[in-house]
Amino acid sequence: MFRRIAIALTLVVTFATSGSPMWAQSTAPTDDDLKVTLLGTGTPTFNIRRFGFANLVQAGGMNIMIDSGRGAGIRLFQAGVSPGAIEAIFLTHLHSDHITGLPDILATGYLGWKLIGGRKSGLNIYGPKGTAEMSRGLSMFFAADSAIRSADEGLKAEAMGVNAVEIEAGLVFEKNGLRVTAFPVNHGEKIKSAFGYRIDYNGHSVVFSGDTKYDEKVVANAKGADLLIHEFAASPQDMLDDPVYQKILDHHTTPREAGKVFAESAAKLVVFSHQGLLPGKNGLPSWDEVVAQVRESYTGELVIGEDLMQFQIGQGGRTILMKGAEWPR
Ligand SMILES: [Zn+2]
Ligand SMILES: [Zn+2]
């Protein structure tokens, strides 16, 4: 395990700027901190190391999620959080790779066993137009299961439901000092609405770009944020004429564009997630190529996100807990 941790730390050092390594700023975490765990850093591609896009934010005594891609329930459990203990899930948009983990979070979360379930009221899901219909579909999918468990185990109907909230841009959630603000992003003309989210707590902030092309609204919302978690897609040169690749690249941010966003936002730490490395005839683009393109305009700290990597932001500075490094490579 120590070897794996060493490898991952080297990765971060490689992409960090000069000066003290980030983890040297670590201080003991406190309950006043804002904690972020990357549950899934992948895309629709099946990848055992990178589950579907999903994130856990812990603050104000609550667990909230941004998106719930493939395997989110498993990663939550690995992070020590029961699917039944999620206060709310905020969806950036309704593409499948951001929601395929939802059924598991819903149905495992309402089981009576508190270790993995124990939810007493419906699952709160916030998202764009279409979220209510999707949520009705989720409930229908589990209609037989909830009827059986109601009759057999005495589970309450209200615990097994979904409370869907279709949002507009602006402040969408505020509780225990935690504020969630949605902002529109440009994921393509036909994908409306698509949101990014800014989360503020106790003077600290984390921003999720959502799926988006280069967008000044991400820059504006991430101004001075403690943490910016941003997507990207990168194609090898030999595939740029491929119409499928062109379509993908037309909906996402290139590493070069991401570098611009990072530089313009002046976020204190940026993290790549939703990692869209597209294969070419000679394999995937290398991280060296991707980082070099970012470095054309951005010289600050950059972390290549890994599943289960955790960030803790508090008065004492920033801590990065490299739990992702423990995952087999
Ligand atoms: Zn998408
Ligand atoms: Zn996506």
Overview of this protein structure:
The structure is a single chain. The chain has 329 residues and is an alpha/beta fold. It has a single domain, classed as Ribonuclease Z/Hydroxyacylglutathione hydrolase-like (Metallo-beta-lactamase, Chain A, 4-Layer Sandwich), CATH 3.60.15.10. It has helices spanning 2-15, 72-78, 102-109, 131-141, 143-153, 216-221, 243-249, 255-265, 287-294; strands at 34-40, 54-59, 62-68, 88-90, 123-127, 162-166, 170-175, 178-184, 195-201, 204-208, 227-234, 270-277, 302-304, 310-314, 317-321. The strands form 2 sheets. An 8-stranded mixed β-sheet has the order 6-5-4-3-2-1-14-15. A 7-stranded mixed β-sheet has the order 7-8-9-10-11-12-13. Helix 8 crosses helix 9. The protein starts with a helix and ends in an 8-residue tail after the last strand. The model is unreliable at 1-27 (pLDDT under 50). One zinc ion (ZN) binds next to loops. One zinc ion (ZN) is lined by residues 93, 95, 187, 211.
DSSP, total strands? 15
Q: CATH homologous superfamily - what is it?
A: Ribonuclease Z/Hydroxyacylglutathione hydrolase-like
CATH architecture designation: 4-Layer Sandwich
> What class do helices, strands and sheet pairing give?
alpha/beta
* Alpha-carbon distance between the two ends: 11 Å
Poorly predicted runs: 1-27
**Ligands in the structure?**
zinc ion
Oligomer: single chain
- Overall tally of structural domains: 1
GO molecular function: 3'-tRNA processing endoribonuclease activity
Domain Metallo-beta-lactamase: 51-252
Pfam family, one: Lactamase_B_2
Signal peptide: 1-24
